[in-house]
Amino acid sequence: MSIRPVPPPAENVEVAVVPKVSIGSGWVAVLEPREGGALVRLQSAERGTVSVEIVLTAEGPVIRASVGALEIRAESDVRVSCDRFLVEARESFAVTAAEISHEARGALRATGSEVALTARQGDVAIRANDDVSVRGEQVLLNCDRDPPVPSWLPRPEAAEATLPASSEQGDPGVLRALTEE
Predict the structure, then answer these.
(1) In what order do the strands lie in the sheet with 37-44?
(2) Residue boundaries of the structural domains of the chain
(3) Model's pTM, two decimal places?
């Protein structure tokens, strides 16, 4: 899943020059009309530039903000309503809360090169209306993986069957194949 970038405005567009307006504390505001939208830029010689661009597309307006960091603080809720919510982080994504709930009307999937689930206190409960499948190279329940046998240690020979095939029960064709050598 990748965030689809909004194409930049055409380069050969005539742009009207708008004077800079001082807004105090060394900041200056500039409004640049662009084809299909506008760019609002706040500039400070000491603190850098903050850009907010509104681009009018066939799908509707798109607002882009370009800043060093973005913080949102709300005394109550922050609500987002959209068709799809995509977040693409270059390094990591973290959510911290007293309680976190995930609910999907359809499938819920977690995929990664490694997945760890830890309960610091209390149980881990897995419930399913149907089957629960656990697949892996080894499924370890309440145990650690056995240490590997050193290559210099001789391997034991396979043990012979202690029960003759004639005493076995099961599919007659399979039993015949086992006794014919």
Answers:
(1) 21-24, 27-34, 37-44, 48-57, 60-66
(2) 18-67
(3) 0.53
